Here is the input.
Amino acid sequence: MYVKDIPAEERPRERFLKVGVKNLTNQELLAILIKTGTKEYSSTDLALLLLNEIGNVERLKDVSITRLEKIKGIGPVKAIEIASAIELGKRIYLESPKYKEKLINAKEIYESCKYLFTKKMQEEFYCLYFNNKQELIERKLLFMGTINKSVVHPREVFKEAYLTSAASIVCIHNHPSGDTKPSREDIIFTKNLIQIGRVNKIPILDHIIVGDTEYYSFYENNNLFNL
Here is the structure.
């Protein structure tokens, strides 16, 4: 079945023009992204299959391309287009100057950022830059490493802090092994950052290590100010 087989007034794009984007269902919005159907399913059918597969629309933010491709009728091209639209939406939401996310503890930061590390097979190091109200100014990926090593230079961490006029910084990176225990290198690097932060009056508030389903916070474990 193709979209052309659906009565014109019921097609997602026509309904978009008729009733406006805010009045479309999740299924209709996905159908517009999917664009075309297959011999067996229309784009609206594929949208419904996708929603049924993931459980609810909120879970789309964490869905992988691999999982999308497993849905019958959604090949690599459609999967990439859907994933790109989801990522763009997340960036617009998180980086919009009209909305400043306030994150006041390690758990909130972990919940806000854990999607960044889903199914990542190498270390990725982010810095979160905050204003003096603990509102997020910018979330920036600074480095990507191998499965067991990430080369990070403090200069880049603080360069971004000056560019964004940040009042404080939280570092967060993942351990692909799933073990959140800080390595010797993590401890040494965190100590160096803290010392540089004190000199520059831009404190490092925390360094969070993300595993599969949990996190380690230097601050929560009372290791931040002992370094």
Observations:
- Strands lie at 124-130, 136-144, 168-174, 204-210, 215-217.
